Amino acid sequence: MMLELFPEGFEEAEAHGGVELVAYTDGRGEERLWQAFGSASGSDVAGDWLDRWRRFHRPIRVGALWVGPPWEEPEPGATAVVVDPGRAFGTGGHPTTRLCLELLQEVPRGSLLDVGCGSGVLAIAAAKLGFDPVTALDVDPQAVEATEANAAANGVEVRAELADAAGAALPLADVAVANIALDAVERLAAGLRSPLAITSGYLVSERPALAGYEHVRRSERDGWAADLFARG
Hints:
Elements: H1 2-5, E1 11-15, E2 18-22, H2 27-37, H3 49-52, E3 60-62, E4 65-68, E5 79-82, H4 95-104, E6 112-115, H5 121-129, E7 134-138, H6 141-154, E8 159-162, E9 175-179, H7 182-188, E10 196-203, E11 213-221, E12 224-231
Parallel strand pairs: 4-5, 6-7, 6-9, 7-8, 9-10
Antiparallel strand pairs: 1-2, 3-4, 10-12, 11-12
C-alpha cells in the first residue's frame, strides 16, 4: 500500500517494538496516509535535512591513499581520491573496497581492468597509484557516467565503458579487480585473461573459484573478504 501511495520511496525504521513506515511528504501526502491507514502521525523535517546525509560519508585512509568526499580536506602527504557520492555504488567506506585498495598497493604496477566499477573508486585509485592504462567496465550507465565524472575531477585518465562482463571476453590487462558479488566473480572468470586478479564483494565464509587461476592470498575485514589470484 505504501508503494502505491509513495512510489518514489519511503523509509522503514524500527520503532516502539515494531516497524514504522515513514514517508517524506507534504500535507496532501499526510492526508493520503490517514485515508489509507485510518491513522498517522506527522512532524516537521529538520531544516538541515539536505545536508544531513553527508554525515554518513566519512573519509578513510588506506596505506598511502586517502579516499573521501569533496567537502572533506585530504590528509597532508596522502594520495587523495576524491569521490562525490551519487547514484552509483561505491564511496570507499565499505570493507570490501578497503580490502581491494590494500591489495592494489601490494601488486606490481601495470595496466588495470576494473570490472563493475560503480563510482570508479578503485579505477581512480589505481590510476593515482601509477597503473596505466586503466579501463573500467559496468553494466549500469549511471556507473559509467559517475566514473567518468569522478576521474575527471581527480585529474586522472580512466577509460569507462558500458559492458556486461559475465561470460564475455574481457580486455587484457596486467591486473584485474572485481569488487562484486560472489556469483558474478565466478561468472566473469571465463573471460578473464589478466595474470593477476583481485576479487571481493563477498563474506569470509564464501570462497570464489576462478577457473585457470591459483589462489595466492586472502585479506579479511569486518566479516568481508578479498582474494588475490594468479593465473596458473
